[in-house]
Write a sequence for this structure.
């Protein structure tokens, strides 16, 4: 029922974006659509809490607590970015930077992007997940190159080439994965729930090759180093609301698809070593990204590298594999989604006011944009894992699990990287916020008051999660941990 | 019959790896896709399963007609269609492809299916086209060749069901369209299709 309504909302919103010619109406409908999707996903959440999991359209749609977490992240972040897009697109349209057609294209692609992510996380079919991922690539390629400048076109071209090759490799992995089942092949084998109860054995060598292909291929989309090269360009050149959605949701979802396969791979005996893929690539991501953070001169690029760092933390959490580590990784993915969206939206406001992404050209934000500075500081503290924020507890749990399991080297790399990332963030952003060299009079800018509402929503959600992750959200996360740990 | 078609695919892959002209590459790609479509038809006739016929139709419409049309449309606007300085020259591309053919026939002997090995070779050819050349349009054709290789994998190893196959083919079509529009934009903004000029984003 709720899922049918979701499809209806999507079709209505997209047809309004195509037919109506008034930007205001389109963007209000866009906001209304995302809010309705949020309400529906919460209602689905109650169903899932009641029954454990739900099927729809036969067995085509399957939602359990793991997908429910992703669903809630998608819909809440979309509400924030839809709110932000309203003034963002209106401003660009009124200053004649973009035409009416282009603004309409933006909203259509926004809807398609959100819907393909919802499709991905609801799909029970493993090829459905792949198709959803590819659809997100197609929807976001134009959004990255939205401004048609040299830099954004370059980023978009890089993005579409690298991610398409990655996903092609992922498809090879999925084909080998099905082949490794050693049996007469029929279409119901593509159902994830059917694979979960598979008991006829696997051919292990093929399965190992298959999962490596899946990890590397789909990991490209997740931005795991060394396949992260598109991410730093794409996330920094895209319009800020799209960067927020890509950094907050999309990389989580790619990791979610890998985890879905990992759950089945664990059923085969003697493949426990596959978890070292998560650990090795996680450590690589941490090392590469933290040292890149230190030398950035572009603040949006710095935030993009921080996403690589956070995906490294999550994949280490899944790699350590204990209940604590997986719990930490899931909690971290939730907090990171809101914290990173907040930071990207604030950086969008700064970019809008200063028209530059260079760190050195922005000084004394606390005078010129006091409201945004406060949100920027909150975002930095959340992303770097400062206590009361839930990200502190998630990182602590992952570290604890690493030391408990005796994985001293990866855990030490994690601790060291967290420190360096904290230093990098604080040094860079404190300069931007507080440095007052007296060269000019710093007065408050008019644009400081624009687009504050989505930031307030983001902070409210972060506070909500930090306050309730051990009470209200605990059953949801715990049952997702049970699905992963088996 | 199937062996003949597979050998045509193999020859087209080897030939494409050394072509310098984008127009020839485009024709090579169309021929390759046509052969894959005919392969689906032959398989469908052999096994009597209707989903091969659907795949035949989809491949024929999208990869033999529409995608080559998109490629040639986006080629019209660019001035030079010939690759001038290639990272991997034509003769070296042939040598690398030859080594790839030899290796995949030696090491993949366990998989008795020829389709699987030719799929591997197509993926490698696509990679050579993407890495060894500088034109954006050659990279696009390389990516599509890679996808053809994955389709051969799929035909040889698993059965996806018609809806999923339709989804994959449809997304390839959209991908080709988006890349075509992007190539047009790149040509307009940079005044060239050489990807050497796409290197402003650095650390």
């Amino acid at each position: 029922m709720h899922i049918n309504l979701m499809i209806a909302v999507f079709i209505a919103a997209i047809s309004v974006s195509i037919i109506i010619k008034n930007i205001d109406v389109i963007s209000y409908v866009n906001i209304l659509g995302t809010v309705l999707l949020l309400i529906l996903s919460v209602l689905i959440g109650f169903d899932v809490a009641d029954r454990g999991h739900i099927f729809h359209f036969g067995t085509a749609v399957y939602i359990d607590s793991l997908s429910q977490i992703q669903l809630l992240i998608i819909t809440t972040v979309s509400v924030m970015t839809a709110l932000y897009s309203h003034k963002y697109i209106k401003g660009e349209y009124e200053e004649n930077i973009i035409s009416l057609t282009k603004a309409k294209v933006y909203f259509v692609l926004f809807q398609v992007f959100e819907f393909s992510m919802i499709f991905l996380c609801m799909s029970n079919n493993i090829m459905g997940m792949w198709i959803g991922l590819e659809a997100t690539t197609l929807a976001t390629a134009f959004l990255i190159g939205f401004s048609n400048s040299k830099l954004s076109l370059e980023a978009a071209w890089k993005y579409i080439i690298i991610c398409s090759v990655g996903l092609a490799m992922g498809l090879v992995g999925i084909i080998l994965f099905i082949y490794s089942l050693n049996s007469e092949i029929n279409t119901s084998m593509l159902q994830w729930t059917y694979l979960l109860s598979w008991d006829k054995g696997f051919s292990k060598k093929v399965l190992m090759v298959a999962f490596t292909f899946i990890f590397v291929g789909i990991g490209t989309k997740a931005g795991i180093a060394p396949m992260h090269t598109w991410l730093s360009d794409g996330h920094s050149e895209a319009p800020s609301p799209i960067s927020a959605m890509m950094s907050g949701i999309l990389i989580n979802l790619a990791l979610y698809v890998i985890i879905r396969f990992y759950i089945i791979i664990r059923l085969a005996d003697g493949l426990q070593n596959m978890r070292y893929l998560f650990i090795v690539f996680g450590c690589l991501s941490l090392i590469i990204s933290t040292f890149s953070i230190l030398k950035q001169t572009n603040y949006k690029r710095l935030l993009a590298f921080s996403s690589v760092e956070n995906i490294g933390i999550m994949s280490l959490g899944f790699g350590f594999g204990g209940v604590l580590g997986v719990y930490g990784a899931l909690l971290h993915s939730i907090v990171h989604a809101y914290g990173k969206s907040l930071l990207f939206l604030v950086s969008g406001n700064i970019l809008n006011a200063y028209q530059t992404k260079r760190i050195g050209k922005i000084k004394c934000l606390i005078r010129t944009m006091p409201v945004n500075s406060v949100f920027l500081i909150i975002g930095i503290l959340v992303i770097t894992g400062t206590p009361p924020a839930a990200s502190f507890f998630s990182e602590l749990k992952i570290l604890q699990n690493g030391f408990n399991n005796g994985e001293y080297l990866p855990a030490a790399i994690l601790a060291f990287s967290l420190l360096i990332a904290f230093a990098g963030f604080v040094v860079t952003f404190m300069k931007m916020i507080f440095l007052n060299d007296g060269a000019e009079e710093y007065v408050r800018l008019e644009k400081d008051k624009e687009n504050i509402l989505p930031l307030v929503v983001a902070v409210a959600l972060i506070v909500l999660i930090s306050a309730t992750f051990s009470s209200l959200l605990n059953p949801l996360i715990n049952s997702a941990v049970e699905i992963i740990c088996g | 019959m199937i062996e003949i078609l597979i050998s045509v695919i193999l020859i087209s892959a080897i030939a494409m790896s050394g072509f310098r002209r984008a127009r020839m590459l485009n024709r090579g790609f169309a021929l390759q896709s046509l052969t894959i479509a005919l392969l689906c038809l032959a398989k469908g006739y052999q096994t009597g399963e209707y989903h091969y016929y659907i795949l035949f139709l989809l491949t024929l419409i999208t990869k033999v007609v529409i995608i080559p049309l998109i490629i040639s449309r986006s080629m019209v606007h660019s001035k030079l269609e010939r690759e001038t300085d290639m990272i991997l020259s034509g003769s070296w591309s042939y040598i690398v492809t030859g080594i790839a053919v030899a290796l995949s026939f030696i090491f993949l002997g366990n998989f008795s299916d020829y389709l699987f090995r030719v799929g591997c070779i197509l993926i490698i050819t696509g990679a050579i086209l993407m890495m060894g050349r500088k034109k954006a349009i050659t990279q696009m054709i390389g990516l599509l060749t890679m996808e053809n290789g994955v389709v051969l994998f799929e035909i040889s190893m698993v059965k996806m069901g018609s809806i999923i196959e339709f989804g994959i083919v449809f997304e390839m079509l959209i991908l080709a369209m988006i890349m075509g529009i992007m190539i047009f934009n790149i040509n307009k903004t940079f005044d060239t299709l050489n990807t050497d000029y796409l290197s402003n984003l650095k650390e």
